[in-house]
Each structure stands twice: as structure tokens, then as C-alpha cells.
Amino acid sequence: MSPLLVPFFLVVFAGISTTVVSRAHSLGTFDVFGRHMVAVNNDTSCVGRCNESADPSKPCQCNKFCQTFGDCCQDYAIVCALTCENNCDANYDPSKFCQCNKRCGEFRNCCPDYSKHCDLPPGKVTDAELAAISEDLLSLDINNVSPLVGINLQGRMPSDGSDNAPNLLLQVNEAVFEKKTISKLYALHDNYEAAVEIPEDNTENEKQEVNDFLDEIMKTPIMQRTKDFLAEKDFIPAINFRQTFHRLWFGFYSRAKGIAGSSGFEHVFMGELKNGGVSGFHHWAFFAKEELNNKLNYKGYVKQFNLGSNKGIVISEGFAWRNAPKPISSMFIGTSPEFDLAIYTICWFARPNALCPVVFNGTSDSKF
Fold this sequence. Notes:
The strands form 5 sheets. The protein has a 3-stranded antiparallel beta sheet, with helices on one face. The protein is built from 12 helices and 11 strands. It has helices at 66-69, 76-79, 104-107, 114-117, 127-139, 180-186, 204-218, 221-232, 241-250, 264-269, 284-292, 337-350, and strands at residues 4-7, 149-151, 170-172, 252-253, 262-263, 272-274, 277-279, 296-306, 313-321, 324-333, 355-358. Mean pLDDT is 81; it is low at 5-41 and 364-368.
């Protein structure tokens, strides 16, 4: 089975994004790292073009978004060094999409196979165990509401970011609020300031709403399984699970000017505004709410993956929120908040600063 690859790039717990990982092609005239290569036609090769801006006049592209849009040049994976095999501890190369040196984890730009080839300390959780626990959690998702969330993908978003979706992406049936973990989740949506430079006030009422939400999700089979798994792997003692979980997701930290204006929950389950763009924003419930309130403009999807019958989908998409752009994002649609929290938490412990291979629906062709 080919896993979904979940990369984490966070300071405290900043979020998730799905990434398509290309296989390197075998081209006889090139070596594996693009050295000593001569391109016959620069428009169809990435030689000298790594990380350049998209150029619609050219037949293929060589930037970090080309894998998502499926328009990479044939030699992109080789020329732009998307592998760390025989390339560990290479000097930083700003033209490369990803790096293979010891500080790539710190700067959140490691190549997908860095942990495989570059002698990271062996993890406590194998890829097979991650595949098993992810399938297990999906099967335990009793609050999954996929049948109650209408999805209108419409057109694929063009690589230039133009709008190819005139209608709403999501239509949510009010019956979703019968699920207590979802209704408690919605109560948190008005607790946060979107701009990262504005400190959060974190009132007593807001603290109580967080505790009410945690009370509900901690009762679920998913969270019980997550607690047991993390305890078995010596990541979190069972007695400390809720306290640690609360700190990881709801503890405040700074993403701008030393101001405590961010949390993992806000970043992932809502969204943040920073430097004129959107940061985070990876949950369907807030996405649907902001669409309905005319604060979000969905522009089209890029990739989608089916989680199984009545289990929902994973989608990568583009949108604008409060007039700020989010060229590429991703989210589960229809899954419960406890499912998303469980997957992200396990991956954060099991594969810090690296891709996290999880498997859903037993698929044999799904690399996200």
C-alpha cells in the first residue's frame, strides 16, 4: 500500500498539509543529482530552472507547486534533488525545493526521504504501525458526518490561481450539530483573532468552552485508542494524556513579534492571517462556515482522495479568505474533529519534522 504522506512543519503545533510526492524518472543522460547535465531544450527541462516562478508559456514547470498541479518537467525530481539518497549533509542550495542537511528539520524543508537515508535516530513507531493505527482510527470514527456534508468540487484550480469554482464547495446539513464533538467545536470558532500579531484574550468563558470540547472528545473511542497508543509507545503517560493534549493544541505561542497570538488549534482548525496571506486553515467545518458567511472564496480543487464509503475525502484546494490568498491548502472533509486531532497528534510524536505515512481505505495508489 502506498501511504498518504502527512508532513508536519510546526513550531509548537503549526499544522498539516498534504503533498504529492513524485517518483524520480530514470533519464540516461542525467545523474541522480542533476550534475553534469546538458539540456537540449530548457523549456522542457528543469536544468537551471529549479524553483522559478510558474510560466504558463512553457510546457512544464520546475517549482514546488508543480507536483500539486501535475505539470512538472520530466526531470524535476532528479534535477531539483527531491531525494536524499547519497546526498546527506549536502550544502544548502536555495534553488532546491527541499534539502538534505542536518538543519533541514529546523527550517522545515527536508526532502521526503530524509529520514530514510540520512541517519535520523530510529523512530519508536514503524511505518506499518502508522498504517495500522490510521486505518484503525478511521474505523472508530463514530462522529464522522460525511453523508451530511455535500461536496461540490467543480473545476480544478488552474496553476495561475484563477477562480474555477463559481459555487460553494460545501453544504452542511444542520444534523451535524447532533454530534456533540462537532457542536462543541463550532462553539470555539469565535474565540480567536485571525491576525497573528493580535494577542488572544483567552477569557474564562473561552477556557470553559475549550474544556467542554475536550470533555466530549476524550469520551470517544478514537481518543481512547490514541491515548493507549501514545502510552504504549512511551510518548505520553496515560495519566498525563489530557494535560499534554491541551498544552499541544491550546497552548499559545508567537508567530509574529513575540506576541502570543497563535495556537495549534487555531492554526489547523480555523486559520490565521500573516504577511498578507492565509496560514493554516485545514478543517472543513470552519471552511463551510466562512463560505456561508461570504468570507471565503473557494477557487477549485487540485487533488482529492476518497477515504472510503461514507467516510469522507481528503482534498487539496485553493481559496481566498478575508481577501487574503491561500494558493494551496488541504483538509479532510466529513471526518470528526477528534479523528483529525488524533491523526495529527500521533504524527507529531511519531514523525516530528518529517513526512508521516498513514493509510486509509487500503488504497494501493494514494500518495498525498
